[in-house]
Amino acid sequence: MRYRKLGRWGLKVSEISLGAWTTFGDSVNDLPRIKEIVKIAYEGGINFYDNADIYAVGKAEEVMGEVLSAYPRNTLVLSTKAYWPMSDDVNDRGLSRKHLRESIDKSLRRLRVDYVDIYYAHRYDDDTPLDEAVTAFSGLVDAGKILYWGTSEWPAARIAEAVAFAKGNGLHPPVVEQPQYSMLYRERVEDRIIPVTDSAGMGLTVWSPLAMGMLTGKYDDGTPDGSRLADHEGFRERILSESNREKVKQLKLVAAELGVSRAQLALAWVLRTGSVSSAITGATRPGQIEESLGASGVELGADVRKRIDEILAG
Fold this sequence. Notes:
It contains 13 helices and 10 strands. It has an 8-stranded parallel β-barrel with strand order 3-4-5-6-7-8-9-10, surrounded by 4 helices. Strands 1-2 form a two-stranded antiparallel ribbon. It has one domain (3-213, 273-300): NADP-dependent oxidoreductase domain (TIM Barrel, Alpha-Beta Barrel). By secondary structure, it is α/β, with parallel strands linked by helices. It has helices at 20-23, 31-43, 59-68, 97-111, 130-142, 156-168, 187-200, 228-231, 233-239, 242-258, 262-270, 286-293, 302-313, and strands at 3-5, 12-14, 16-19, 48-50, 77-82, 116-121, 146-152, 176-178, 203-207, 276-281. 44% of the residues lie in helices and 15% in strands.
């Protein structure tokens, strides 16, 4: 396993990480299987485990807290997020100071830790002034409840504003952005986000680098019942098309020539840029995390990257 810094900051994360959206309490509810997946991930060098309070409405944090309590805390980089409504209460949502202070305490209890390494603003909050949100996140750093904070799926302009406000007022700035990024969903990140985050010294921890499994070849011949694209209409409309299906089939030959799977090729591709600190993967079975681990260290030469770009542009 190779490790990368979060942008210019000192924290190092495994370039392949394990996310909770799939693995902890959502698609997988079998605790022994979750423990087996995490054991493979940990022994394979993964130190970064990503979560959010909204995943399974807190259950994902509870399961992660139980499973990861078996490992030394100092060897783990844990992240979680806040923004989405966690109840019907009018203040149990967003990025207000009240919600963030209460949410982090609840997350820490569920995760069974005293602090998280990274705390994300899960979306930009139009109802909360930017200065309130930035000040609140910075205050949580000062309180020792979080070590760093970041943004997730924020507009580029808002990220730039948050960095400028923090630096202009002696506050802790965001150090990482978490966007969706893959071979099949790239223009927004490459054209808008990376210029801003690179300039600010921020890293990227990208989610859905396998395009909800599309890039693994799982959907070559159709949409299996119970698959993530079958169950998530929004992602299905964005990703699942005959054009994308054909591109994924063509990538099979490129992967075979490199001696890797299409999943490993897709992960190596998002990691080809130093702007990306970690590719967040999910796993519903042990074999999937083993396959993802094999992507760390895979180098894509200029000729391979050119062939991939030609396929993706087709």
